[in-house]
């Protein structure tokens, strides 16, 4: 009789273990997102510092315009990547809620993940545009 009860008790534990396994990939994605946010923050800091130096000189208005554009792109990229992180965290949370509540929340998980990937693509494209502007600024000097 005790052996028959064991599979019933183990089922929720196995479901939770499966949820943990499914959450590993999104957690790695969160690590990559935090690294990407670090890169964007460093780039934004450098742009702001350069803009402050140029403002102090009172010259090179074309450089200041490009730097202003870069600040806008990097700020938007940061927002987009941050939204990605929130959505990926929601995927993990909803996955666990579905297991605990024994409810099929697959449509919510899929929606959050697709939105997260779209947001990540947007952030990466904005970072690419910033890189192109940065290259243009450097090429103007040489």
Overall description:
- With 142 residues, the protein is mainly alpha-helical.
- The chain has one domain (27-141).
- It has three helices and no strands.
- Helix 1 (2-57) runs antiparallel to helix 2 (61-101) and helix 2 packs antiparallel against helix 3 (106-141).
- The longest helix has 56 residues, at 2-57.
- The N and C termini lie far apart (83 Å).
- The model has no long low-confidence stretch (mean pLDDT 88).
Q: Can you give me a brief rundown of this structure?
A:
By secondary structure, this protein is mostly helical.
Question: What attributes does this structure have?
Answer:
single chain; 142 residues; mainly alpha; 3 helices; rod-shaped
Give the SSE map.
Layout: H1 2-57, H2 61-101, H3 106-141
Helix pairs in contact: 1-2, 2-3
| Global geometry | rod-shaped
The secondary-structure class comes to mainly alpha
What is the oligomer described by this structure? single chain
End-to-end CA span: 83 Å
Number of helices: 3
Which residue ranges are poorly predicted, with pLDDT under 50 across at least 5 consecutive positions? none
Helix proportion of residues, in percent? Answer: over 70%
Beta-strand percentage? under 5%
Work out the count of structural domains. Answer: 1
**Helix-strand string:** HHH
Radius of gyration: 23 Å
Largest sheet: none
Mean pLDDT across the residues is 88
What is the number of E strands?
A: 0
């Amino acid at each position: 009789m005790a052996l028959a009860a064991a599979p019933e008790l183990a089922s929720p534990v196995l479901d939770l273990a499966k949820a943990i396994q499914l959450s590993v990939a999104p957690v790695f994605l969160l690590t990559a997102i935090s690294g990407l946010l670090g890169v964007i923050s460093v780039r934004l800091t450098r742009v702001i510092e350069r803009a402050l130096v140029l403002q102090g000189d009172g010259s090179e208005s074309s450089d200041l315009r490009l730097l202003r554009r870069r600040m806008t792109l990097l700020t938007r990229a940061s927002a987009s990547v941050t939204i990605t992180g929130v959505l990926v965290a929601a995927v993990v949370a909803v996955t666990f809620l579905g297991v605990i509540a024994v409810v099929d929340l697959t449509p919510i998980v899929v929606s959050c993940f697709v939105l997260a990937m779209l947001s990540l693509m947007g952030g990466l494209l904005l970072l690419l545009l910033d890189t192109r502007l940065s290259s243009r600024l450097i090429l103007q000097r040489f």
